[in-house]
């Protein structure tokens, strides 16, 4: 607590996009308030951007702008990295850490690929690395996993951690529209990028799953360890069938400890309407945690957007500034457990599989045979819900056949679906959605 | 990070009730795992109880038991206080702090009454005080307010922070039973104490409101600053009327910043069924936070119970043990803002007021006159919902009259309700429930 030195704590900001701009605003507009909370003044000493002329925010003084991120980082106590991507972000962060600065980042792609090296570099140098904004935007989920639950045993984490896909699925559910229309709507409203691939194919959620799995299980998990299924094959007919069963379809990042090891995955899943995650609408995110002693926990809020994400970034900056004012340190990220990674088909699951078929005599028999040949037991078959004109491959002739399995091996299931898809009477893309209880 | 000394960090536990017992279990059963997370072993050096012969938990070694809490506390690095109440808990904590130990407590009553003295003593001595379990049990809400949101401006916090009252209201809602029956059911199932006063009159929630208000607004707020309304007057008829409007009744701890100052209150409120807090069932707790940049956040989980509360306690213990291993410190609790406290009637609100009446000619006119005389504008009057045999004062003769006001001054509203209650045709207790949007 002894602190004679009252010089301002120097903060460098790398990147002034949507989040960077709002981060600068909070740091500048609330500087007196933040100084009171820290017990020492804090000063934004520079903002590094590629093109200073593009920055027009009234709260960013022109004189703070620079194109030399490395030089700026070298004269700061805390470096905030909001440029995104792997390089040059990784080099900037490592250089800042080596020079003794603590770092705050929202860069999920970087952490999911090189997190352990960064965590280890920070621990070695005796500086901190904070990244609350990298998962779930404004929602405190990193700090609960690093600190609040550190006395407990995390069993599983299930998160709606991508706002774009949740918005699309929620629009399809509430408005009965198809995937393409919902995606265009999301793009028009700014909830989806012009190139939405990383979101709709689940790669963004996979990065967050890797980060959460490492924190939950103290084991080195990277994005390449996370199998991914996206939502592009989900139709209005799938949503209608789910609704008829009082279920909703959500894209989930699921991290869990099983008998076969730990697993981190991203897949669309059917959830009962009564599940707390089922009520997460629009672009909101939520993370549901099961722990041995704490039991069920849920964290809910805005998973993206400039101001919400900046709230998490500045929370980290102030936390770190307090450490600096107290000559103190935050927790290191211990990766000691080396738990095995469960093979893809280690756990059995139930699946809802939807085919589009031409309804000729013998079709159902042929399809059922592909399942029974592989010893996959069928729980229910349903042809009541019709495809709609919102769905790709729609024609009045095509029927929707939905098969819900009992627990089965995933690899075998995918093999059966592939075999069925090759039958003459089957058309279009099948969808495979996991059924959770 | 330099740490030559690898002697175990000594932890003393004061109290071995439901939470204390589970805390000891987690510390003992997970000791290897926790040592890995801390980077140094941690040892439970003693458990202080009034009657050692009453402790039969297999994970608590007999030799650790003592009746001398003060002596035990004097030989620990971290003292966990789980005995509850004001004294001797306060003296034990202050003595531990003075002797240089950091402390972890779940004692909401003590913190709501003497928190600022304890926070200041800890800051002065350069030790930490953690109390995640004091609000919301297993739910991380203290740490988010102290750290995650420290870069943001909290506008309001609305919490379902008492499991007993939420269980009672939820049973009344889902089963259509009356208050008395729901309370007996809660007692039978262990969700309510034999003497349920502190819960149903809202005092438990008020203590939590005071703690949250201090953290959110950096201002000295104590339990005596928190006006309280309980739920004992709420009838099955009130619940039925709410359901007919697609609303639910919840007992809320509400902490907010208004133009007139800050306020912390506990009251029953009508919430739309679509509000995230409306879906919090049974004895679960949830806290809904609005912040300037983060926007809406919600935290949900088990607000009570031995193991869930112990999860939060041990999370704090491990966090503090990491600080000790790093010669480091957690954040102090800055109380710098001295914001004014809003007077009771500073903000106008809408209310649903329910009277039990003998339906004679002129009754409605007489009642309406008491409102109009005080310039309280009425938004709706409803006599459709009948009282039920579940409700006190029920007889076939008695009707339920429900008046929903426009925004009005609360003191004037209470005056009108008092005047109406004295009319001849009015019987039983009225209920006054705030209408939130």
Automatic annotation (TrEMBL), chains A, B:
L-homoserine binds at residue 193. Residues 352-437 form the ACT domain. Keywords: Amino-acid biosynthesis, Methionine biosynthesis, NADP, Oxidoreductase, Sodium, Threonine biosynthesis. One of its GO terms (biological process) is methionine biosynthetic process. The active site is at 208 (proton donor). It is an enzyme of class 1 (oxidoreductase). Pathway: Amino-acid biosynthesis; L-methionine biosynthesis via de novo pathway; L-homoserine from L-aspartate: step 3/3; Amino-acid biosynthesis; L-threonine biosynthesis; L-threonine from L-aspartate: step 3/5. Gene3D superfamilies: 3.30.70.260, Dihydrodipicolinate Reductase, domain 2, NAD(P)-binding Rossmann-like Domain. Its cofactor is a metal cation. CDD domains: ACT_HSDH-Hom (cd04881). The keyword Mitochondrion does not apply. This is Homoserine dehydrogenase. It comes from Bifidobacterium aquikefiri. The lineage of its organism: Bacteria, Bacillati, Actinomycetota, Actinomycetes, Bifidobacteriales.
